[in-house]
Amino acid sequence: YGHSNQLRQARAMGDYLIVGVHTDEEIAKHKGPPVFTQEERYKMVQAIKWVDEIAPGAPYVTTLETLDKYNCDFCVHGDDITLTVDGKDTYEEVKTAGRYRECKRTQGVSTTDLVGRMLLMTKAHHSNIDEDLDYRKHTDNFGKGPKGHSPWTGVSQFLQTSQKIIQFASGKEPQPGDTIIYVAGAFDLFHVGHVDFLEKVHQLAEKPYIIAGLHFDQEVNRYKGKNYPIMNIHERTLSVLACRYVSEVVIGAPYAVTADLLDHFKVTLVCHGMTEVVPDKDGSDPYEEPKRRGIFQLVDSGSNLTTDLIVQRIIKNRLEFEARNQKKEAKELAVLEAMRRLEEEK
């Protein structure tokens, strides 16, 4: 949702947003191993509702040639620095030409922090659980070089506000003639498996209005175990709202899809993917009511990607990720130092 928020801000600066997505090879060269394949990333970026078009295989260094090729007036990046493998600012050329704009980086989330949560089996990142000191200590070390702490790669707390939700929400009410479809789950680490599922659900109706019910952290932990969900309810809300197929999100939906919920939202259809449905606390089927009404449908996303698989990819690349983050932090700290020296010389 940090990436989505950047795209939202970029889209607000102009009329048409083209997002350049790098190949696996380019990322491996400049940053380290990507978690998702380029095909997965193309699909995920395309599913974000502020994106008009993607430019697959975009070069890591943005040049004027790239901007002209796609007929772009300017490019936008967050206010953190990105450096090439040899430590140069990747946006130097477009900045000099006056075709660069900047947006605010989203506070409280980074890929680094999420990777840390996946590797540490604590639950301290769940909402309303006391902060676990071990977790704090360890996230502070995670990917941190020996010399201090870069503000870009470091970890900070995500604070949800109503304003953020409003910015991400579509604000559209269901219209007469809309098919109101309800889906529920954890939607943790919102990924291409979720996108494939929601896209399939979206294709089930002429005018779909999809409501996604997100379960509270404790509920997800009950049926998923370990330290799931990796992202807490506030973070999952924004991630799902950013998807172009979703019209509305129920924050903390009941695990059992009740008659009340179906009547309240005037639900026509309830869909679930091909994943296992864990019984409710009392052993009952959470989809008993929609099944009784004959409005329940299983939808095959055609994707086998799960949150578990992503965590496995991360663990497999753990050492490479730690090395990547330390290198990234060292480069950022060197730039900060240089910027400080420039200030002093003025």
TrEMBL record:
Pathway(s) served: Phospholipid metabolism; phosphatidylethanolamine biosynthesis; phosphatidylethanolamine from ethanolamine: step 2/3; Lipid metabolism
Gene Ontology annotations of biological process type: phosphatidylethanolamine biosynthetic process
Family matches, as CDD domains: CCT (cd02174), ECT (cd02173)
UniProtKB keywords: Coiled coil, Lipid biosynthesis, Lipid metabolism, Nucleotidyltransferase, Phospholipid biosynthesis, Phospholipid metabolism, Transferase
GO CC terms in record: cytoplasm
Record-listed E.C. numbers: 2.7.7.14
A Pfam family recorded for this sequence: CTP_transf_like
Coiled-coil blocks: 316-345
Family to which the UniProt record says this protein belongs: Belongs to the cytidylyltransferase family.
Protein name: ethanolamine-phosphate cytidylyltransferase
Biological source species: Furnarius figulus
